[in-house]
Amino acid sequence: MTAKVYALDTKPGVQRDGTNFDKNFYNDGRWVRFQRGRPRKVGGYREIAGNLAGPSRGIYVNPQNAFTNVFSGYSDGLQVLPIDNNGTGSGVTNFTLSNFTASLLNIWQFDTFKDATGSGNNLLLAHPGQNLAQIDSTTNTPVLAGSISGTTMSQIGTFTDANAYLNGSTVVTFTQVDYKIGAGQTVTGTGIPANTTVVSSVGDAPNLSSVAVTGVAGQMSCASTPGLFLGQTVTVSGTLTGTSTGLVSGATYYIVATNYSTTFTLSATAGGAGIATTAGTTNGLVFTLGLYTKVTLSNAATTTGSSTLTFNNNISVSGGVVSLHPYVFVYGNDGLIKNCSSGNIEDWVSADANEVNVATGKIVQGLPVRGGSNAPSGLFWSLDSLIRVSYNPTTINVGTTAVTQYWRYDIISSQSSMLSSQCVIEYDGIYYWIGVDRFLLYNGVVKEIENDMNQNYFFDNLNYAQRQKVWVTKVPRYGEIWWFYPRGNATECTDAIIFNVREQCWYDAGQALGARRSAGYFSQVFHYPINASWETNYVGVISEVSIYSGGAGYTNGTYSYVALTGGTGTGATATITVAGGIVTNVVIENQGRDYAIDQFLSASIPGGAGFSLTISNVEEDVSLYQHEFGTDAIKGSTPTAVESYFETNDLGWVSGGPSQPSMEGINRWIHLERFEPDFIQSGEMELYVTGPPYADETDSTTGPYVFQPNTGKVDLREQRREMRLRIRSNTLGGDYQTGKIIVNADIGDQRGYST
Asked: Beta strands 505-508 and 122-130: pairing type?
């Protein structure tokens, strides 16, 4: 028979389920995707930070001021890294977190919110839930909030003021610009009766009345006020027509002394000396106090004067947090869904705020739903249900009283499931996630995503004990949803299962190195996906130490930037405090690097001997990457090649021709004479021929046959009962997009070898 030319008709996607012989899709692949039905290499990635604490258990990005701020939550805290559009960062900054507990079990959920009635700030919301070991953990942890442009966060609903002024009535005042007090909060503190709650709170910037200058060093008097405070600002405006001197219109002064109601002293600086004044009247001038908060309580205070008060709404949940603007929702145990009042993150008791238990199982994830007549609305996933929450004000009669119900709760499905709290994503208005035994979507109804290509491959190889580490991201440019997961015995993600929404096919990362990621995020502004590696850079910086021996005979005092000696690392310094001749406190200043846990360190301090400490914890930095950047893996300044390959389905005469169906096959081997690449190609590539003599026998592989860009053909002599072609790129700058793959094939021997 004369050899014929065949254009292979392998279908898009990599089929892992089923036998090699029984496939019309690609048999194998690594770091390959499908576009227009054809294979092409997945993009490269470059390191944009190598000193991220980790592994990261949650990534969130937010653009502002020409930078994309990357927030990364890990076991011990939260970090932010601003990067520009070129991927250049300005360094990692650690957040200061109040009401936060470090834990290896922390998984972070993030969102943003406009605080319309409090600070007026755009807020970052975060929930570090202790859910890493088990999705159904019932441990409640605080929901945190802070300015999106800041580096501090504290618990929603909890606020402490050290200078609250009590007037023996139901009104309390204190100086605070960014206050966190809402109706319904409990109040505790000296002078506050038990079971007292906040009735209302309001921010104000009042003007002082009857102000007179009483002394030569900024001493002033005024009519009685709700409360003056040390450090409070006073702004002067107007034109003086009175007899006093020393006050400048438009200037802002600080209260450095006061009786808290009618007398005060002004200074040009906080805590400075009083300004020079001449006693007299201040006709024509307006004195405006800095913003303070006036709080009305349910019970009158028993004393007057300054006191430390704590306000607490106890916004702690096990599930997480989500913004359905202008509302914030939290969720968790026993189907709990709870929301604040419109635009007020501190008000959880007003009429439009609500708390309800809509399921028996824990709510583990919530996402907003776009548009619709009942906006805002959102979807909430419990362990066995999908619930839709919609804004739907409806007035009903309760007895003779008209009551407005603001929210509607619809059970979409009570027969779904959720593999991990981080495995659901929205793509063009449709929601995709993984259940405990299948892939699911919601497009108005809950449906199974058909997958006969790698569903068994995924669930049979998933390390189910590490299910909470499964997380999802998307690459809309190529129509892809990526689920990263720990494969086999791995305790971190080592592979990714990929659903191409546009091509309606499945494939996987092939356990490529680029799939070793613990968290990530796709930004609608920044066009590169951001993913964090869990593989440590083995920096070994000191994070915690314990005094093993305080020694004796040392000279009392505080010693700064003392070099620590010993151990395997270098560069660590500390502030060391000596009292009573012994070391009483050590604060690490420079963390150094290359240290290890349980190593002993010492230092040279005047006078004594015997001091030592042990390293109780070190941090191993991890890297943050831009994906879909170039073609190589770039770490630091060093690029390495990214391996990518794909392998066709079986070619032979049993199906009537190479990769083509037929009514009748030929019981002869296939003889391959030529391979003709129709590629857009950078760098050299390799062709391997593999396959068994018979379907269930061991593969025999030959090659590589190397071909360059613009290579017209590759001549070869290969013969199998069935054969597959593996095409591989593994060079710096290597890239490819395939068109048609053309082969010259003939009928081979009637009998071949058998293993």
From this structure: unpaired
